[in-house]
């Protein structure tokens, strides 16, 4: 069994072409945000993503589909305009997501428990797609057998998916799902081999791994464990552990889409910036001007704070993510560098692509530099062309995140810089970066650099392979050492 798993992982690492999806959610409520936070369907760049998912519609007790905001979605034609994006980009696939956190589990559970209601739900979903012009349906049931659900949800969800796949294959529609990431939740909610069989792809929500529900400060989406993660349970709350958990439970890597957040989660702390990971907190950070919810900030709000100055940015070499603090405010988030590392991780694991929650909290106005820096970093890392406003080819535009070369032997856990106006690291020609693309470190095969030409100079992004892997210059992914000429 172990040898089979290792072989599967090796083959997945070599399957570079499988990592080709950029799946993006759009939260329709962003239409109502104030000022520069307002983001409507008409603001979506149809070339940013390969698949875009409209969130959300609701489910009724009889298995029918509920439109959540008829004024926005019908009167103002948000659904029609959303699917109209395909007129500009015929390669784009559009899906609609049903559920979400606020929908809960109770209605889903009731419908899934009845054979007749399951069939009605599947037929209603297909009719909804046909009526509005969507290409697929995304099930965002959060979560089977949890939050008001029943123990039988796990099996009933699989039965529901089997019906979806049968009908949708006949009609040419996609069926996907947004799923919990952490192993404990996965075991409660999903028969993973069945999901792998019936879903076209699986959007793994590898974020919200820590937040104000925890007693101590933790990063929203760490790639690997921090220095304070010492128990088995703590070490499982990382992006890497979640993805490996899904694979070990029977998911094909090529079916998994790695979720990344265009937002951060923050805390109000007691002792200003002396607080580190694992310290106590008194609640969420101050709400931002656009998202207006304590404890969470969009990347557009974060980069504007960094531009205003006064923040200390720390790069965690172990977790491969940044965090920032100012006074009693502590915020863990993803920046272009950590997004590039996670995208390369998806490539190295042979995953099907990268999923983004969500479009409306990237820096879509380019107020901090590049337009949509996080989305364009994903595209650059996947060797896809930069879209409108992204001529810098994946430059950070916002903070540099205190970038480092990764967690090498003898390095400290964190690197800290105090910033006022963030700027990318410029490396003159003749140094590490002499051309665009990837360059492996001369002394450590687990470290590599992404070089981007911008304004006559090279921007150097330092990246690190997952533990135990080397960067393979023949295919530009991290690979097993035995397969790499180092």
What do these coordinates show?
The protein folds into two domains: 2-261 and 335-381, Alpha-Beta Barrel (TIM Barrel), CATH 3.20.20.80; 426-483, Beta Complex (Antimicrobial Protein, Tachycitin, Chain A), CATH 2.170.140. The protein is built from 13 helices and 22 strands. The protein has an eight-stranded parallel beta barrel, surrounded by seven helices. Strands 9, 10, 11, 12, 13, 14 and 16 form a seven-stranded antiparallel β-sheet that branches. The protein has a four-stranded antiparallel β-sheet with strand order 17-20-19-18, with helices on one face. The two termini are 29 Å apart. The chain has 486 residues and is of the alpha/beta class. It has helices spanning 2-14, 70-75, 78-88, 106-112, 115-132, 153-171, 183-189, 192-198, 232-236, 239-248, 299-308, 336-348, 373-381; strands spanning 21-27, 51-59, 65-66, 93-99, 136-140, 174-179, 201-204, 256-261, 263-269, 281-284, 296-298, 311-316, 321-326, 329-332, 353-357, 414-419, 426-427, 437-440, 447-454, 457-464, 470-472, 477-479. Helices cover 28% and strands 24% of the residues. Residues 1-18 form the signal peptide. Residues 20-385 form the GH18 domain. Keywords: Carbohydrate metabolism, Chitin degradation, Chitin-binding, Disulfide bond, Glycosidase, Hydrolase, Polysaccharide degradation, Signal. Its EC number is 3.2.1.14. Belongs to the glycosyl hydrolase 18 family. Chitinase class II subfamily.
């Amino acid at each position: 069994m172990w040898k089979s798993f290792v072989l599967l992982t090796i083959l997945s690492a070599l399957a570079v072409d499988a990592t080709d999806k950029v799946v993006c959610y759009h939260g329709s409520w962003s239409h109502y945000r104030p000022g520069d936070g307002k983001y409507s369907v008409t603001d979506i760049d149809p070339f940013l993503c390969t698949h875009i998912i409209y969130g959300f519609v609701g489910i009724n007790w009889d298995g029918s589909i509920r439109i959540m905001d008829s004024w926005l979605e019908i009167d103002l034609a948000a659904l029609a305009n959303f699917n109209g994006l395909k007129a500009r980009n015929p390669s784009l696939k559009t899906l609609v997501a049903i559920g979400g956190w606020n929908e809960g589990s109770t209605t889903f559970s009731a419908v899934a428990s009845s054979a007749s209601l399951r069939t009605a739900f599947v037929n209603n979903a297909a009719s909804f797609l046909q009526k509005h012009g969507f290409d697929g349906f995304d099930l965002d049931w959060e979560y089977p057998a949890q939050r008001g659900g029943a123990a039988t949800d796990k099996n009933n969800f699989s039965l529901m998916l089997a019906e979806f796949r049968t009908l949708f294959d006949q009609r040419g529609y996609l069926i996907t799902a947004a799923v919990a990431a952490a192993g404990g939740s996965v075991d409660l909610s999903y028969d993973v081999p069945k999901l792998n069989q019936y879903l076209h792809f699986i959007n793994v929500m590898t974020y919200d791994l820590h937040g104000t529900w925890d007693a101590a400060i933790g990063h929203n989406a760490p790639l690997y464990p921090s220095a304070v993660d010492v128990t088995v349970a703590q070490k499982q709350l990382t992006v890497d552990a979640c993805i490996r958990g899904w694979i070990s439970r029977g998911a094909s890597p090529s079916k998994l889409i790695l979720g990344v957040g265009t937002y951060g989660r923050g805390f109000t702390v007691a002792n200003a910036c002396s607080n580190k990971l694992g310290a106590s907190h008194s609640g969420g950070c101050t709400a931002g001007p656009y998202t207006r919810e304590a404890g969470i900030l969009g990347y557009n709000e974060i980069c504007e704070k960094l531009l205003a100055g006064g923040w200390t940015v720390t790069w965690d070499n172990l977790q491969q993510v940044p965090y920032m603090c100012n006074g009693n405010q502590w915020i863990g988030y993803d920046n272009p560098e950590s997004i590039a590392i996670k995208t390369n991780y998806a490539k190295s694991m042979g995953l099907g692509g990268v999923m983004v929650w969500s479009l409306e909290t990237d820096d879509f106005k380019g107020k901090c530099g590049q337009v949509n820096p996080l989305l364009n970093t994903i595209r650059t890392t996947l060797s896809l062309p930069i879209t409108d406003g992204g001529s810098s080819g994946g430059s950070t535009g916002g903070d540099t995140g205190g970038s480092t070369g990764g967690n090498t032997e003898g390095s400290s856990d964190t690197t800290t810089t105090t910033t006022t106006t963030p700027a990318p690291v410029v490396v003159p020609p003749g140094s590490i970066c002499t051309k665009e693309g990837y360059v492996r470190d001369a002394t450590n095969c687990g470290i590599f650099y992404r070089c981007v030409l911008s304004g006559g100079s090279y921007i150097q992004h330092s990246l690190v392979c997952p533990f135990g892997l080397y960067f393979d210059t023949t295919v530009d992914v991290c690979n097993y050492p035995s397969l790499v000429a180092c």
